[in-house]
Amino acid sequence: MIELDDVLVTAWSPDPAGGPDRVVPLLGPVTLRLAERRIAVVGANGSGKSTLARLLNGLVLPSAGAVTVDGLDTARDGAAVRRRVGFVFTDPDAQIVMPTPVEDVALSLRRLPLTKAARQAAAIDALDRFGLGDRAHVPVQALSGGQRQLLALASVLATRPDVLVCDEPTTLLDLRWRSRVDALLEGLEQQVVLVTHDLEAAARADRVLVVDGGRVVADGDPASALAAYRALMLGVRP
Ligand SMILES: Nc1ncnc2c1ncn2[C@@H]1O[C@H](COP(=O)(O)OP(=O)(O)OP(=O)(O)O)[C@@H](O)[C@H]1O
């Protein structure tokens, strides 16, 4: 289970008045136990959703407090945490590093004790599962945006993480690909933490966190949390 205990995140920021850099708060204090299988995180632009998501696998470290995954501290045991918690970015190009899909997935599998041939076969299997089997050897640039997002997911899931954190994974996709990626995420066995502006997707979660001004301001079942979010954004009474 992922736990956040009294977490604060701060950053250094230039002083617009030209003075020395200042410490600015980005998030917190936040205390959470994330046990549900499907958790959605919603909030305004710049509210702190990505900062919260990145805390979960140690991409961002707490300035105070602690984040643990099954008891492993993200600050002390970062590599072990990242083996348990996979992260999918909005822009798949931020995480695809190899020239072809099969090489990209095979790279993710490099830590598994497999021969080169077995790794290649496992990579092809992973691509097949995501409907990309026939694209395995084409240049990554020749894939559509939706196919690249599926490749990014395939590469992360090939490492068999226990938890998948996705930061707006469908924002760049058209309706067809968005539905496809949504369906795929919904069908996963893993726990999924989904940062999204898609309130229909959030409504299908078991639990919704609403982030505003660096705080979790609502947290509960989708109906009540999304009503609170709409009230916050649109001034509509929940
Ligand atoms: N390293 C940093 N240094 C300074 N400010 C930062 C840093 N990282 C994030 N911020 C600021 O913290 C705030 C929260 O950023 P974050 O990316 O978490 O928001 P978000 O809710 O994910 O936004 P969006 O929906 O637009 O992606 C923003 O104002 C952002 O500019």
Automatic annotation (TrEMBL):
It comes from the Bacteria. SMART domains: AAA. GO terms for molecular function: ATP binding. This is ABC transporter ATP-binding protein. The keyword NAD does not apply. Keywords: ATP-binding, Nucleotide-binding, Transport. The keyword Nucleotide-binding applies. Residues 2-238 form the ABC transporter domain. InterPro entries: AAA+_ATPase (IPR003593), ABC_transporter-like_ATP-bd (IPR003439), ABC_transporter-like_CS (IPR017871), ABC_transpr_CbiO/EcfA_su (IPR015856), ECF_ABC_transporter_ATP-bd (IPR050095), P-loop_NTPase (IPR027417). Belongs to the ABC transporter superfamily.
